[in-house]
């Protein structure tokens, strides 16, 4: 137990809180505080001095505005289901329970977004969006009780994040209250930067309550799959399990989930009242595929055969909802059983390259057996997200120390193998001791710069993420630096562990120079059966492409470009290089500087190398062009993006080149196995006929554009078509390509090849046209949380708050 306030100070604290928070919402009795001692980790307990439950966002803002005067730690808490010691009062002080903020404010099905308060639960949200045929993909196992606010704070994942991604992939906007009580909206329904020059929400997501208090969010929704097939297969040995995991991860069906339970976990389930009839000495794989009915049904038997070919002893599979839930049962009850079987348990969530799976499990078994402690493994096998569960009794002398010693050795192994400390649970105070394994030198200095921007005295959730984050009182702020000079000198002497050029064919990860062109990257990937689909050009370098836009036509299926970059080698303004991010596809280790920097202009430096997530390539490529009048194309596009086919068509763009003709086109790129070609072709032919569109297609590889977009505008999916038509009708010689699912508009200007106009004049003309568009549409974009960007000109910091934040962060990035 840790308490910041002494007895007299505590009395004054309670009285002062009673003046700020309405009656009945300040808890101070020992019995009331006991429920806030721990989170889902359980065995680490910290008693707060008080708990407050603000009635609404205004009351929370009022409390935060008095935080400096209160001069005690402030910890924001949702449902408390986290598993890393995150929302606990490690230094005492005030716990702020946000349970009253639980409204679903708005669902906008045409724009594929919703607005929710921070204490809405996952299951509550799912029930609300289901009637619209939509869903919110992140699905932690505690979905019945865990809150959106906690999910955003920890960047939670879940079983289905292998294909759909984690929370950060779906947060369009964040409303946050700072320590001075000011309320700021970062982003919004359109998912851009909004009125800010920099994308500050990227630092908020996964910040574990250390930067601000969250009140509401704008979240991206997707069309709900028409149908699912669930598989449960048992295997005798780990070699067969590894084989099927690798085959499934690269299969064209692209499973939404690949879960594994080891024999110890299976035996635990089978020895309980929740037994499902599995052999006790078997490894268990639970996997799921989903999609349009015709497509997913065509794959069902092939996936079953894959299990059999890889050595499965038995395979059960079904598309019936009740039967499917039964197939999931063993996986879903495992966590609850561990809580019933042992007084305490510690679950880790390190992420490893999948090639290190057997070595990691051997280490876990050997260490736990040597210590005489039970351990069971159940984890997200598709992305290498380990979940070893160590069962122990903290009341027995020495057992806690044994568990912590095993965790330390495991974390050392994980980092040495190329993995990271956390994939979805966060760092909290459970893994903060291991952060120096990942961050040191400039990378650690830059990480510590982030709380310096928003929470320099570490008053918000101290003792979390980094152990050095300790609150010593607001009065000491001026004398306590985020990075003391002695520590700074030590950091600068540390050697940076930069990414080296490599190609991991097991995980489908490649590290390449930022100067590599699109065609060069494709040639590197092709022999191993991979591709990086999010390319804008075959001729331009990756650096130039990522400066031009954060999206590509294939973002329709694979998401934003930043969600497919796992790490970078970053050159600071000083010329020094630093590693940012990881080589594994899933990480919530530290502040998300990676996505923040990828959305920033060159003021903070530039990438010199990228670590990219690749995708398996199939043997059939095709491009479809469907043309028709504006009304029919509009209706067709709206229909298409509301179906789950959108998850399986590589690129879906609307091309606006000559709107005065009244004719537009939908361009669809497809990569699929030849055995599935008929299913795709039948759907697209019927789709064209339904909306009276002319239908043309070309088989084989379709070359990408050689030019890059001159300006990119980000709005909501339901507004992007109208935006394209406005620009197309007012601009001469331009082409607009709308990536409808993300509300992204790429605008290409054609300045011609007039021999009387110099190259400099053409560049100046383009810059003027870009500036005119930016000025014309900026208000329209920022009102919905959107923005614009251009490779020709840069946005500038104009907001007073942002000037201060920018200055503090820039000081560290530009430091010599």
Structure description:
- The strands form 7 sheets. An 8-stranded antiparallel sheet has the order 29-26-28-27-31-32-30-33. Strands 15-12-14-13-17-18-16 form a 7-stranded antiparallel sheet, sandwiched between helices.
- Helix content is 33%, strand content 21%.
- β17 (375-380) and β18 (388-392) form a beta hairpin.
- It is globular.
Task: Quote the distance from N terminus to C terminus.
Answer: 41 Å
Report the oligomer: single chain
Kindly provide the radius of gyration, computed on alpha-carbon positions and rounded to a whole number of angstroms. 26 Å
Physical arrangement of strands within the biggest beta sheet = 29-26-28-27-31-32-30-33
Report a brief summary of the structure:
This protein is an alpha+beta fold.
Pick out its properties.
816 residues, alpha+beta, eight-stranded antiparallel sheet, seven-stranded antiparallel sheet, globular
List the helices and strands and how they pair.
Layout: H1 7-20, E1 26-27, H2 30-33, E2 50-52, H3 57-65, H4 67-70, E3 74-77, E4 94-97, E5 104-108, E6 113-117, H5 122-129, E7 134-135, H6 148-154, H7 161-164, E8 171-177, E9 183-187, H8 201-204, E10 213-220, E11 222-223, E12 227-235, H9 238-249, E13 257-261, H10 263-270, E14 283-291, H11 293-309, E15 314-318, H12 321-341, E16 344-347, H13 357-371, E17 375-380, E18 388-392, H14 399-416, H15 435-438, H16 441-454, H17 485-493, E19 502-504, E20 509-513, H18 518-525, E21 530-531, H19 542-548, H20 555-558, E22 565-571, E23 577-581, H21 593-598, E24 606-613, E25 615-616, E26 620-629, H22 630-641, E27 651-656, E28 663-672, H23 677-690, E29 694-699, E30 711-714, H24 720-730, E31 734-739, E32 744-749, H25 759-782, E33 787-789, H26 800-813
Parallel strand pairs: 2-4, 3-4
Antiparallel strand pairs: 1-2, 5-6, 6-10, 7-11, 8-9, 8-10, 12-14, 12-15, 13-14, 13-17, 16-18, 17-18, 19-20, 20-24, 21-25, 22-23, 22-24, 26-28, 26-29, 27-28, 27-31, 30-32, 30-33, 31-32
Helix pairs in contact: 10-12, 13-14, 16-17, 16-26
């Amino acid at each position: 137990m840790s308490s910041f306030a002494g007895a007299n100070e505590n009395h004054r604290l309670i009285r002062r809180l009673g003046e700020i928070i309405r009656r009945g919402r300040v808890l101070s009795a020992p019995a009331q505080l006991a429920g806030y001692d721990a989170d889902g980790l359980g065995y680490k307990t910290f008693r707060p001095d008080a708990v407050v439950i603000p009635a609404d966002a205004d009351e929370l803002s009022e409390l935060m505005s008095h935080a400096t005067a209160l001069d005690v730690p402030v910890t924001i808490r949702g449902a408390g289901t986290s598993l890393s010691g995150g929302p606990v009062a490690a230094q005492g002080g005030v716990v702020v329970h946000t349970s009253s903020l639980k409204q679903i404010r708005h669902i906008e099905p045409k724009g594929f977004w919703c607005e929710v308060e921070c204490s809405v639960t996952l299951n509550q949200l799912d029930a609300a969006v289901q009637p619209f045929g939509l869903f919110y993909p992140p699905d932690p196992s505690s979905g019945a009780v865990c809150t959106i606010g906690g999910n955003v704070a920890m960047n939670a994942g879940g079983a289905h994040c292998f294909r759909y991604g984690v929370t950060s992939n779906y947060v369009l906007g964040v409303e946050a209250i700072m320590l001075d009580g000011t309320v700021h909206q970062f982003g919004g329904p359109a998912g851009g930067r909004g009125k800010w020059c920099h994308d500050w929400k990227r630092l908020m997501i996964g910040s574990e309550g250390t930067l601000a208090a969250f009140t509401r969010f704008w979240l991206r929704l997707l069309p709900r799959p028409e149908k699912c097939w669930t598989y449960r297969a048992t295997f005798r040995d780990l070699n067969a399990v590894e084989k099927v995991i690798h085959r499934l991860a690269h299969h064209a069906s692209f499973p939404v989930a690949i879960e594994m339970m080891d024999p110890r976990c299976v035996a635990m389930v089978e020895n309980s009242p929740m037994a499902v009839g599995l052999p006790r000495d078997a490894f268990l794989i639970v996997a799921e595929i989903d999609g349009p009915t015709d497509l997913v049904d065509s794959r069902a038997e092939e996936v079953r055969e894959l299990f059999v070919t890889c050595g499965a002893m038995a395979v059960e599979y079904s598309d019936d909802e009740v039967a499917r839930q039964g197939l999931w049962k063993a996986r879903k009850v495992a966590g609850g059983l561990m809580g019933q079987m042992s007084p305490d348990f510690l679950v880790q969530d390190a992420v490893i390259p999948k090639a290190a799976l057997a070595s990691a499990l051997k280490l876990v078994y050997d260490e736990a057996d040597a210590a005489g402690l039970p351990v069971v493994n159940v984890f997200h096998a598709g992305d290498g997200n380990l979940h070893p569960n160590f069962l122990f009794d903290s009341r027995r002398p020495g057992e806690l120390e044994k568990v912590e010693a095993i965790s330390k050795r495991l974390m050392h192994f994980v980092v040495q193998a190329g993995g990271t400390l956390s994939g979805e649970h966060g760092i909290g105070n459970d893994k903060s001791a291991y952060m120096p394994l990942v961050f040191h030198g400039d990378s650690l200095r830059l990480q510590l710069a982030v709380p310096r921007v928003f929470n320099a005295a570490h008053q918000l959730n101290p003792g979390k993420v980094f152990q050095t984050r300790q609150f010593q009182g607001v009065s000491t702020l001026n004398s306590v630096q985020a990075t003391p000079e002695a520590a700074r000198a030590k950091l600068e002497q540390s050697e940076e562990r930069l990414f080296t050029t490599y190609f991991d064919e097991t995980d489908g990860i490649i590290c390449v120079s930022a100067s590599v062109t699109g065609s060069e990257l494709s040639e590197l990937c092709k022999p191993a059966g991979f591709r990086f689909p999010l390319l804008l050009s075959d001729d331009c370098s990756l650096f130039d492409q990522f400066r031009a836009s954060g999206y590509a036509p294939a973002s329709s299926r694979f998401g934003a470009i930043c969600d497919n970059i796992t790490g970078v080698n970053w050159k600071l303004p000083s010329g020094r290089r630093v590693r940012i991010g990881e080589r594994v596809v899933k990480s919530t280790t530290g502040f998300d500087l990676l996505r923040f920097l990828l959305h920033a202009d060159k003021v903070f430096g530039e990438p010199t190398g990228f670590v990219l997530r690749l995708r398996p390539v199939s043997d059939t490529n095709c491009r479809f062009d469907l043309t028709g009048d504006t009304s029919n194309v509009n209706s067709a596009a709206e229909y298409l993006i509301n179906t789950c086919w959108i998850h399986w068509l590589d690129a879906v763009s609307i091309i606006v080149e000559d709107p005065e003709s009244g004719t537009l086109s939908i361009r669809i790129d497809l990569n699929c196995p030849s055995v599935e070609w008929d299913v795709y072709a039948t759907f697209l032919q019927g789709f064209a006929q339904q909306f009276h569109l002319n239908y043309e297609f070309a088989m084989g590889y379709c070359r990408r554009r050689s030019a890059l977009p001159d300006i990119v505008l980000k709005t909501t999916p339901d507004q992007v078509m109208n935006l394209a038509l406005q620009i197309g009708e007012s601009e001469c010689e331009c082409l607009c390509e709308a990536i409808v699912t993300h509300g992204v508009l790429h605008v290409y200007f054609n300045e011609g090849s007039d021999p009387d106009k110099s190259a400099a004049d053409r560049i100046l003309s383009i810059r003027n046209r870009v500036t005119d568009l930016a000025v014309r549409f900026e208000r329209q974009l920022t009102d919905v949380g959107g923005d614009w960007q251009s490779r020709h000109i840069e946005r500038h910091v104009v907001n007073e708050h942002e000037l201060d934040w920018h200055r503090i962060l820039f000081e560290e990035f530009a430091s010599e």
